[in-house]
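Check out a protein:
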Amino acid sequence: MKTKILLISFLFVAFAAQSQITDSTSNQYTNIATNLIQKDSKLTIGGYGQVDYNQPINSGTQNTGTLDVHRLVMLFGYNFNERTSFVSEIEFEHVKEVYVEQAFLNYRINNFINFRAGLMLVPMGIINEYHEPTTFNGVERPMVDKYIAPTTWREIGFGFTGNVTRASLKYQAYLMNGFNGYDDNGAHLSGKNGLRKGRQKGAVSYISSPSLTAKVEYYAIRGLNVGLSGYFGKTQSTLFDGLDKNDDSAQASADSSIVGIAMVGVDARYSISGLLLRGQLYYNSLSNTDQYNAFTGGNDLGSAMLGYYIEAGYNIFKPISSIKTELIPFVRYEQYNTQHKIETPAIANDAYNANIITAGLGWKMAKGAMLKADMQFSKAAYDNEYSKTFNAGVAVMF
């Protein structure tokens, strides 16, 4: 109930602060991949990256910090003609790991409908789509977007997307591959990591059943964007590969190795006169978790997960027209619990119920170039005090 009140209050404040209906011919929130599609040139090159410094702080002990080229991503887009485009992102993480983050074909059927197929981002929440480091406050992404909706979350699939400008609505709807819940290496979902270890990322991924995901965004009110997203399906299991349909025992084992997932998210972003507000809520309902935990050997996956955050920032240079840069102090409060509900109370763990306060400063010295610094205070349900980490970073996008 507390979570619902916080989110509803955030939305009402945003709506009340600006009730003027404006020209809905454009949406101020577009990600870098969408910008590549909208370019007139044949070949478009872009990219983003971040270099981070993380320093745990403890009054009783001395700790070493970490310095990391967290990610460097190169984007390549190609327009075959006025209707057909290809978008790709090649990501280097921690210098030595290489991933393909996106690789999809986009075909514009008309002004309101696009067909897409390939490796695409799952349209859940804010950060999973708008994850470029200059588009969010703080050095690290919110923890809610790590454990509840595991950013960067992408899978192979196909579907439709579009922008109905007269109604001020953007939409996406895809059939996609699901999480890897169980394979030869065992279970991949847990209370500790939530759904994160189940991402297949399009890397020789397998499928036993498809999942449906969709999102609608409304942006008619100046400065406000509200999104509603959902994801529905079952996890994948290699036990269905070569399964004899007449083998009841093997069928029962395979059925015990999957988890049903119904994820719903609501988010809002609002900006006016330098004030920047955003909030996000995820609720994941998981079915068959008791059987899954027993079959996989005492796993601790919850039957429901909950996560949300609210954030406020202010560009203090906004009132000074002669200053073209942005200086944004901000504060964010978030809470997540990967065992919000659990079918077997004996395996509940307060370590998976945490809240985090992040406060910091970001300087956008130019469009696409940003320096960041913040202090992060985190505490699990059983902790008496917050653990502290100082973060600083360099963020770029072009």
